Amino acid sequence: MTVKGDEPIVGEKLATSLMVNGNLYNVDVDSRTSLLDFLRETLGLTGTKKGCDHGQCGACTIHINGQRTLSCLTFVAMHDGDEITTIEGLATGDELHPVQAAFLEHDGYQCGYCTPGQLMSAAAMLDEPWGPDDADVAEAMSGNICRCGAYQRIVAAIQAVRQAKAIS
Questions:
Q1: Domain 10-89 has CATH 3.40.50.150
Q2: Could you tell me the pTM of the whole model?
Q3: Chain-centroid distance, C-alpha 118
Q4: In the chain, where the domains are located
C-alpha cells in the first residue's frame, strides 16, 4: 500500500500471477480483494461458495498448493505464483475425482450449497494424517458446516474413498 502524507491510498493495484485450475492468470488486482471474490467475480468460477464470509462455514474451501484453505480469509495478493484448485478443477476432464463419485454414491449432499467446500476439504483430507475412525473423519471435516445435516453420509463417502485408496 502506498502512503501519501498520513493517509494510506487504499485499493492499490498489484500485479499478480496465479495458476488456477491449470490456467495461468496474470492480473492487476486491488490489494484488498479476497481470493473468494476474485475467483467468483473476476474469473467467473462460482462453484466456490460465499457462505459466512468470516471463515466459519467452510463453503469457500479451495486448495492452494495442495492445502485446503478458506478463500474468504485470504487476499489474492498473498498468493502470487501459487497454484489454486477450485471445485471446477477437482475432476480430471470428464472423470470425477473419487470423492465426487463417492458423494454421489453415498448421497453426501442435501441442498448442495456446502457441497463444493465439503468436496474440497475431503479431497485434501485424503493426503493428511488423520486416524482411521469415523470420528477422525468428522474431526477432520469439522470446519465445514452442512446445515442440512448430511454428516453421516459425508463421512461414509469419505471413508469409502479412504478404504479404496488403502486397498490400491
A1: no
A2: 0.91
A3: 8
A4: 10-89, 98-167
Q: Quick one: cell of 130?
A: 488423520
Per-residue pLDDT of the chain (168 residues; tens, 9 = 90+): 444 555 555 668 999 999 999 999 999 999 999 999 999 999 999 999 999 999 999 999 999 999 999 999 999 999 999 999 999 999 999 999 999 999 999 999 889 999 999 999 999 999 999 999 999 999 999 999 999 989 999 999 999 999 999 888
CA distances 19 to 61, 85, 137, Å, are 17, 8, 30
Q: Cα 76–79–83 angle (5° rounding)?
A: 115
8 A C-beta contact, residue 149 and residue 118: no
Spell out the SS3 assignment of 40-82.
Answer: HHHCCCCCCCCCCCCCCCCCCEEEECCEEEEHHHCEHHHHCCC
